[in-house]
Amino acid sequence: MNTSGNLVSAAGLSNNTKFEAGMSKLKDFLGGRCPRCGAGKVFESRNPYNFSKMLTTRKECPNCHLDFIPEVGFYWGATYVAYAITVAFSAFNFGISTLIFGFMNSLNFTYVIVNAILLLIFCPLFFRFSRMLWLWIAHE
Ligand SMILES: [Zn+2]
To answer: From the CB of residue 99, how many other CB atoms can be counted at a distance below 10 Å?
Structure first.
């Protein structure tokens, strides 16, 4: 009988352990860390709004030496991820605008300008998120 109250899966890990491992991976992902060791930082600067180092991705993990740029043009694929995020974000903003101002009132230039400003503000975060997602997909 399992006295700890955890269900033991076929892999031998309890559901709580799997949950904790998943949360740890999510924390590493959102923290911009290496997909293999979870210790090394992927980007040079911690601050995504540091414009001089915003685009600087390390060549390899400082901890486990995982290659962060395995081939030339590796991150071209991340632009598709960024595009999808941008479209989803704009659609979300349009939905919010429709809820507040109504559908017809949202089909105007104000929405375009406000959405463009929001996209500029969130651009560094989308950039990093898409690169991280691409890197983590490649190393899963
Ligand atoms: Zn690493």
So the answer is: 10
Cα separations in angstroms, 130 against 6, 112, 114, 121: 35, 23, 23, 16
Distance 86 CA to ligand 1 centre (A): 29
As residues whose CB is below 5 A from the ion ligand 1, the structure lists 34, 36-37, 40, 61, 63-64, 66
In this structure, are 25 and 43 located in the same domain?
A: no
Q: Verify that 104 and 40 share a domain, yes or no.
A: yes
Domain count for the chain:
2
The structure's pTM equals 0.78
pLDDT digits (tens, 9 = 90+) for 2-38: 444 455 555 556 778 888 888 988 999 999 999 999 9
- Distance (angstroms) between ligand 1 centre and the Cα of 76 equals 22
One domain, residues 134 and 73 = yes
Mean pLDDT (whole number) for 36-60: 89
